[in-house]
Amino acid sequence: MTTPATDPIKVLLVEDNPGDARLIFHLLHEVGANDFEIERVSSLEPALDRLSRAGVDAVLLDLDLPDSHGLETFTRTRAAAVGAKPIVVLTGLEDERVALDAIGMGAQDFLVKGRVDGRLLARVIRYAIERRRAEGALAASEAHNRTILENVADGVFVMDRTGRYLDVNPQACALTGYSRAELLTMGTADTHLAGERQEARDRIDGYAAGVLQPFERRMLRKDGSIILVEANPAVLGDGRTLTTVRDISDRRKSEEAIRASESRFRELAENVREVFFVMEPETGRALYVNPAYAEVFGHSREHAYATPHAWTEDIHPDDRELVLDDAGSPSRLAQFRQVVYRILRPDHSVRWIRARVTPINDEAGKILRIVGIAEDISDLRQAETQFLHSQKMEAVGRLAGGVAHDFNNVLTAILGYTEILLDTCAGNAEQVTDLTEIRTAGMRAAGLTRQLLAFSRQQVLQPMILDISQVARNLDKMLHPLLGDDVSLHLKLANSPGNIRADAGQLEQVIVNLAVNARDAMPGGGQLTIETAGLHLTEGHASGHPPMMPGHYVMLAVSDTGVGMDPLIQARIFEPFFTTKELGKGTGLGLSTVYGIVKQSGGFIWVYSEPGLGTTFKLYFPVVDSEAEPMLPPAEMPDRLHGTETILLAEDDVQLRRLIGVILGKLGYDVIESDNAESAERLAHQRGGAIDLLLTDVVMPGINGRELARRLIETRPAMRTLFMSGYSDAAIVNHGILEPGLNYLQKPFTASILGLRVRQVLDAVRGRSSGEH
User: pLDDT (tens digit, 9 = 90+) per residue, 582-593?
Assistant: First the structure.
């Protein structure tokens, strides 16, 4: 086998002595004629010129040249050598000291002239080249490592066994605030807090035992500030340790902020009453639900985590199609949605849920998760239902009141003229019978209008302070025959439950109507219970029964053991003319009247019933802080109805005005008729004599009856006033309560009632103030 040919080593020989030069040529040729290629120059300047170009592997340099001597020769040659070529110094015996200095300055080796053979010369040249290459590689490696060290983002500290810093990088200086020179005079203890320096020493001792674990510590900076750092130690050998240190203060603050944010989120999510959930869109499995899930849906949170689309299990059958129709379609998942539906809980109770769902997308628009809130709005739904029902009742009430007002004028005319005819036909039995039937029908119609006015809260009340238990107790004897033998009556009446302000007669009507309604609901007999109690209603209870406010109330409960009602019937029981009885068996106004009286008295009424389980009506009246008033005896009847006094009549209804004029004229009164307030005021001023009574409708075009009375009394203080109306008007009635001292005649009325009331007013004790008219 043959050795592959290699390029000869190119040697630049800088030697001014021709003999020494020939010897070197001879020695290298002797070792290997083709191993070396020698180029000679005899002075430094041409040598420097040659070294500025490539093509030289090594330099043999004589330090004493014609144009340079000693170390200066080496210094200039080294500076000119491209690529830091290896230099071997040639010297004589007397210059060996200078040669050694050259070695210290970077020469690879030196040879003493006269002591060199060919093999030594060749070996020195080759070794010089190899050492230079090794030094270059090492220098490059060190430069590379230094570059890394200088540019690494972490601080690097090299320490000895005592913790003294041997080397640091710029980031270490930035971390500590010290310069490199300052750090190299310090140790790790100097960057520890005083109370933590022993811990630092113990850790350094552990390095020698091979205990090398990452750790966190507080680092004391030059300016006295403290940062939190994360350190990772490593052993370099010779007792040295390299530790990389990273400032984690901001990271720790961020982590703390995240933990605080998570804590606040969890605190909020865990304590809100609404169900908060995070769901995986692909599987429908819950990633998070808060504790309210168990309270609202009735299942454990574990059930939600384990069951895909767990929330859909409880959707009410009637709402499933609405909720689940396209809930899973991509177009619906990708947008905010709100849906209201019912659920059936495991305990079979029904709740209304309002759910709001929002997708969370990545930058590409892909849905990462679904978040949402499910709110139990059962109480709100109930309140809305009650509010809508209240609005409906208000609207029906206004209609009923308007109808009753207009109808009362008609009924007054019918009843009045019927009584007049009865007086003129006293000898004709057949006509009397017919007229009596007409009057009976009119009175029934008048009763219906009174019930309509009660429902619409437009009747006139005369309230007083009452003990509701005493009112119920007084009805005991009357109720027994009304209920019949097959219905037992139980009274559970509290002693002094609190006093209320109400019209005693109207309150009695409420109890009677409820008792009759209960009797009809127990066709086979049963038990009726009337109960009273004083209660304090809390915010929670009141909020579920708007518009009731928290406070002290007196409760009246009327319960039966009858057939009960379903929710659909319960929603309509207070509507006028609504009845479940057979045609002709009831007007449907009994409970409507109850509703109107309770509302007009400032109370509240609710019904609780289930089919087959009976019914309970609960009435709540606000407590008043006053003593109960004694029941007033009935007004005394006048001994006569006729009179000769002058009466000024103001009534805009033509038919009714004529009727009243006829009735009062037959009774002997001098009647001045007017169709409005302006006409009445003008006639009063024109009349020279006295006017004993103003009989006026309350509601008339233009000036109302109350204002008319005020104007006339200014000039006629002795004049009495009697107001007429078909419903409670704000001119004389405040929320259905008659102002004290006002005389009032409710339409419709008969001729005898008109005569009676006029006589009572005229015969009243004279001399009272004008405000009592």
Answer: 554 555 566 777
What separation, in Å, do the N-terminal and C-terminal C-alpha atoms of the chain show?
150
Residue written as token pair 């409420």: 510
Q: What is the longest distance spanned by two Cα atoms in the chain?
A: 186
Q: What distance in Å separates the CA atoms of residue 168 and residue 565, rounded to the nearest whole number?
A: 90
pTM: 0.41
Distance of alpha carbon 646 from alpha carbon 694, whole angstroms: 9
For residue 463, what pLDDT band results from cuts at 50, 70 and 90?
A: confident
**Nearest-angstrom CA–CA distance, 180 and 35:** 50
Helix axes 504-520, 476-483, angle to 10 degrees: 30
Tokens matching residue 20: 């020494």
Distance from C-alpha of 694 to C-alpha of 713, rounded to nearest angstrom: 10
Edge-to-edge order in the sheet of strand 646-650? 670-674, 646-650, 693-697, 720-725, 744-746
676 near 720, Cβ under 8 Å?
no
Detail the DSSP E strand segments found in 625-692: 646-650, 670-674
Q: In whole angstroms, what is the distance from residue 43 CA to residue 50 CA? A: 11
DSSP structural state of residue 212: -
Structure confidence by residue, pLDDT tens digits, 740-759: 567 888 777 888 888 888 99
Taking residues 534-549, report their average pLDDT. Answer: 75
Kindly write down the DSSP assignment for every residue of 3-61, as one continuous string.
PPP-PPEEEEEE-S-HHHHHHHHHHHHHH-TTTEEEEEESSHHHHHHHHTSS--SEEEE
Least Cα distance to 246 among 266, 270, 268, 229 occurs for 229
- How far is Cα 138 from Cα 608, in angstroms, rounded to an integer? 98
**CA 428 to CA 416: how far, in whole Å?**
19
CB atoms within 10 A of CB 630: 8
Query: In the structure encoding, which two tokens stand for residue 175, read together?
Result: 């971390």
